[in-house]
């Protein structure tokens, strides 16, 4: 009999024949006798009674566990129950003369998902045009990334780079973290505190600067927050920035073999347009998924939330290591930190899965290839990139997943209330609404 204690939690009370379990135990002990190594006996010659005394309890537990698992699997199959996670088994008291082992299996099932009506959902679609000014701005960034620094025999000005040694003193005692040798600082960049950088304006190579400085009250080092300290700085060199010219050499450095600057601009514009399309699709996808979840009444299995919390926790640990180079050293981030996000992601996944089946929105092979070709356009060897994805089923599944979600977005936009909103490329990239 199936009991329901919550919308998704079920319980089954089942029985296993003890005679069948005893027969399985005997079979397992016989198999074990062929390999068991016990002092004083050759393999295969250990007395059955000795094997049963040594291993009988463990073998019985294993046989009973397997019998319970098999019985449970058969029962849920017969009742067409879609189990989520691992069931919890507990013994149920039964009469010894019955020859049965009774147990109760408690588990969760997948919810019945009925995607809600999103016809009244308001979706805002950004409209973006990549302008010449956007291309110019990108070229400026690319030029600055290729800055050469040239030593100059003049006073340091804003935008110059200073090579320096420095020592910080608090009450005439060097403080931790206040010493550096052969450090670079671009004046006015915010790399160091503004008062520190401003104190170096006007310095020349070979100069020594001594100055007092007060740390902000909210400074990250508690021992220095709001404190006044003294710095001694020796300037090794002052360097001015020299940007590359907008010529054939610069175009070649960006992968334009011919050095054609017009072609360079066209390639940059194409890359920006692809990025804009990607960002727009991302915004639409977020709105669609939010609308679908809000419109759908859905009970979310705790087991799936738990699995997702674990995955998010692992991702957080990996991200921490990538940014800091350090492991989290066993520090366990609490479930509550990820629970809301995990529930939302599971909800989206459940609704998406049902919607794809109902509306037949699977990723078609030609759609997958078209997306791959589009993504590969920004690489020097697009065909090699496409081939690389097709060489690994796991990589290809990632692209298929993107296409599937795009199909859902297209389906949703044809039903929701969509309004177009012009937006500047910079606002789109910067995340402004």
List the helices and strands and how they pair.
Elements: E1 2-4, E2 9-17, H1 18-33, H2 48-78, E3 83-92, E4 100-109, E5 122-127, H3 132-145, E6 148-151, E7 161-170, E8 173-186, H4 194-198, E9 208-214, E10 228-242, H5 248-253, H6 261-295, H7 302-324, H8 339-359, H9 365-376, H10 382-390, H11 393-413, E11 417-422, H12 425-430
Parallel strand pairs: 5-11
Antiparallel strand pairs: 1-2, 2-4, 3-4, 6-10, 7-8, 7-10, 9-10
CATH fold topology of the largest domain = Trigger factor, domain 2
How many domains in all? 3
Assembly classification: single chain
The H/E string reads EEHHEEEHEEEHEEHHHHHHHEH
Structural class per helix/strand content?
alpha+beta
**CATH class descriptor of the largest domain:** Mainly Alpha
Number of strands: 11
Question: Any overview of this molecule?
Answer:
This protein has 433 residues and is α+β, with helices and mostly antiparallel strands. Helix content is 46%, strand content 22%. The protein has three domains: 2-109, Trigger factor ribosome-binding domain (Alpha-Beta Plaits), CATH 3.30.70.1050; 122-133 and 259-430, Trigger factor, C-terminal domain (Trigger factor, domain 2, Orthogonal Bundle), CATH 1.10.3120.10; 147-242, Roll (Chitinase A, domain 3). The longest helix is centred in the middle third of the chain and has 35 residues, at 261-295. The two termini are 55 Å apart. 16% of the residues are buried.
